[in-house]
Design a protein that fits this description.
Thiol Ester Dehydrase, Chain A; about 140 residues; 5-stranded antiparallel sheet; alpha+beta
Length: about 140
């Protein structure tokens, strides 16, 4: 299993009145981690979109464990949890600087044609990308 890491500095604008990171910001951080993973593996979301495809989020699940606060660094750890013909599930941990888990999450994605939103297998679009995801997935398909 391959895990990508992305360091972030928590900005004041990302916190609520209690000085705690507002929950919706975690979704943005998941996207940052996912983009970093794709980049680390040598692939490009931009090239996928330029070819006429997008990868919408079908499901998000976040479990909050320990509050993050303004001015502190955090780390987003991202990996491919599962990959099948149509779906990719990414796994995430967001960590405090001391390694304490602040949140865990998963997001589920499919690839669709940009003009019709019809699902298409990643294998048909970019076989190398699809095979790399199968190779590094935490859980192997049956």
């Amino acid at each position: 299993m391959y895990i990508s890491e992305k360091e972030i500095e928590i900005r004041y604008a990302e916190t609520d009145q209690m000085g705690v990171v507002y929950h919706a910001n975690y979704v943005i951080w998941l996207e940052m981690g996912r983009t970093q993973l794709i980049k680390d593996l040598g692939f490009s979301v931009t090239e996928l979109e330029d070819a006429g495809y997008v990868s919408p989020v079908m499901n998000v699940n976040i479990s909050y464990k320990a509050a993050l606060r303004y001015g502190k660094p955090a780390k987003i750890r991202t990996w491919v949890k599962t990959q099948d013909r149509l779906r990719t599930v990414y796994g995430y941990e967001i960590l405090h600087e001391d390694g304490t888990v602040a949140a865990t999450a998963t997001t589920e994605h499919i690839v669709v044609k940009k003009d019709s939103f019809r699902p298409i297998s990643m294998m048909k679009i970019d076989k190398a990308w699809y095979e790399r995801y199968l190779e590094i997935a935490e859980e192997k398909p049956e």
